[in-house]
Write a structure and sequence with these properties.
heterodimer, A: 127 residues, alpha+beta, 44% helix, globular, B: 389 residues, alpha/beta, Aspartate Aminotransferase, domain 2, 2 domains, 7-stranded mixed sheet, 4-stranded antiparallel sheet, 15 helices
């Protein structure tokens, strides 16, 4: 039952306290949802595109501090990118951006899956 | 903002009186109790005084108390020590699914060495059915180990009933009493136990010292070989300051026990009622009345316990969670899952444990802070909206 908050970087704590882009987009151009019930992680991502550019990104998430911070950070990273550029974001990029510990690296992996699933959804809608 | 500590089940602050009792044995009375000159004999006297106090609290004989480095070592010594001594007579051990890791760990280690272990299930409140214990006994059973109270959910086990059963069958019975020793009455005769583990730092004593009660005549092999300390049951120079502090902590606990147990029980019940009145979809984990006086454990649906505790920490409130995120394991609390709750609820478990310095005002502050934290996390949670549509 021991707490391990000290493993969180200042970046994670700052975003966790005040996450950006919480919410939903009605009629999104892309949507993804991933869930890992064993780890207690759920992430949901909504994207709006203006031409080929992601103009808006919003999220909802349930999980640990790293989960909420990472999903929020993803929405910030995706804005202004094309779907192709979005897919170039790796788990290592997310881990590095949030200074996640090795133990929390799985959150970055789930985040990368979330991005990939949203772009896949976008492509299906536009196929 | 004043820091509110609500994790007394994890550890307690050292009582200033305990520190005062320990100090001379850290500085001037530094002797080794095994030596013959006066320095050593003063230390010996301090160790034996503490042994007497600990034995007195649980109605045992002083020679039935062996000092250890803590609760974990006491549990290991009880389980592995009996297994080693009786391994030729049988290879079966009975325990339960919600034991502390310091009981489950030694049991699993023994399984790897060819022992068979039965992990009994618990009911929705976390209690073992004594009938199941009876049914699990085989000709090969050499030890039953069932905790007195659970560290996460606070549920008290029907230890006395299991003790009677064990006595009838002539099987050794161990109980991990780390959470009850010094908090509620513990009597080795009433409970019918042959072995009982206790720890100092759960009762305002120092970390790094515990004790195992070993009923006279119980066969047990030591884990640590070396010198002749502790009647050859635990080698190594005694932790004299720690043991002295343990003895003083027991003295203080004994004096405080009736009033403190009553005060904490009232505080606990008020706390639970308050949380249930202000937060919807909140579930009490553990037994409503057969539980430790200072334990409140709730599962808050649609949120993750670590996120709740992190938010509480930002408000200077220290609480614990059974969520996997904080323990380093993948699965959430084995205890909450064993109650039959799903993973989502297990991840949403939060434990508040109160103690000597917890006040009604502290609890009021948590009751004020928590609904807002839960509402904020739920507003972010896709699960919350989904289930409610």
């Amino acid at each position: 039952m021991a707490g391990r908050f000290s493993e969180y970087s200042e970046k994670v704590l700052k975003i966790f306290k005040n996450p950006a882009n919480v919410g939903v987009i009605k009629d999104p151009d892309a949507w993804s949802f991933i869930s890992d019930p064993t780890r207690g992680v759920t992430m949901e991502l909504f994207l709006k595109l203006d031409g080929a550019i992601i103009s808006d990104a919003r999220f909802r998430a349930s999980g640990c501090g790293a989960t909420i911070a990472t999903t929020s950070a993803i929405t910030e990273m995706l804005r202004g990118k094309t779907p192709e550029q979005a897919l170039e974001i790796t788990d290592a990029d997310l881990s590095q951006a949030l200074e996640l510990s090795e133990r929390k690296h799985y959150v970055a992996e789930l985040g990368m899956e979330l991005i990939a699933a949203s772009i896949e959804d976008y492509r299906k809608r536009n196929a | 903002m004043k820091r509110i500590y609500l994790d007394y089940a994890a550890t307690t602050p050292l009582h200033p009186e305990v520190f005062k009792a320990m100090k001379p044995y850290l500085l001037e009375n530094f002797g080794n109790p095994s030596t013959l000159y006066s320095y050593g004999q003063e230390a010996r006297q301090a160790v034996e005084n503490s042994r007497g106090k600990i034995a007195g609290l649980i109605h045992a004989k002083p020679e039935e108390i062996v000092f250890t480095s803590g609760g974990t070592e006491a549990n290991n010594l009880a389980i592995k020590g009996v297994a080693q001594a009786l391994g030729k007579e049988g290879n079966h051990i009975i325990t339960c699914a919600i034991e502390h890791h310091s009981v489950l760990g030694p049991c699993q280690a023994l399984e790897n060495r060819g022992f068979a272990v039965t992990y009994l299930p618990v009911n929705e409140y976390g209690q073992v059915n004594p009938e199941n214990v009876g049914n699990a006994i085989t000709q090969n059973t050499i030890l039953i180990s069932i905790m007195h109270a659970n560290n996460e959910i606070g549920t008290l086990q029907p230890v006395a009933e299991i003790g009677r059963l064990a006595r009838q069958k002539g099987i050794y019975f161990h109980t991990d009493a780390v959470q009850t020793f010094g908090h509620i009455p513990v009597d080795v005769e009433d409970l019918g136990v042959d072995l009982l583990s206790a720890s100092a730092h759960k009762i305002y004593g120092p970390k790094g010292v515990g004790a195992l009660y070993i009923r006279e005549g119980v066969k047990l092999e030591p884990l640590i070989d070396g010198g002749e300390q502790e009647d050859r049951r635990r080698a190594g120079t005694e932790n004299v300051p720690g043991i002295t502090g343990f003895g003083r902590a027991v003295e203080l606990a004994e004096a405080d026990m009736p009033g403190e147990a009553q005060r904490l029980t009232e505080l606990r019940n008020r706390f639970i009622k308050g949380l249930q009145a202000t937060i919807e979809d909140i579930h009490l984990n553990g037994h409503p009345s057969a539980r430790l006086p200072g334990n409140v454990n709730v599962s808050i649906n649609y949120v993750e316990g670590e996120a709740v505790c992190l938010n509480l920490d930002l408000e200077n409130i220290c609480a614990a969670t059974g969520s996997a995120c904080t323990t380093g394991s993948v699965e959430p609390s084995h205890v909450v899952l064993a109650l039959g709750k799903n993973r989502q609820l297990a991840h949403g478990s939060v434990r508040f444990t109160m103690g000597k310095w917890t006040t009604g005002a502290d609890i009021d502050r948590v009751k004020q802070a928590l609904p807002g934290i839960v509402a904020r996390l739920r507003s972010m949670s896709p699960l919350y909206r989904q289930d409610r549509h």
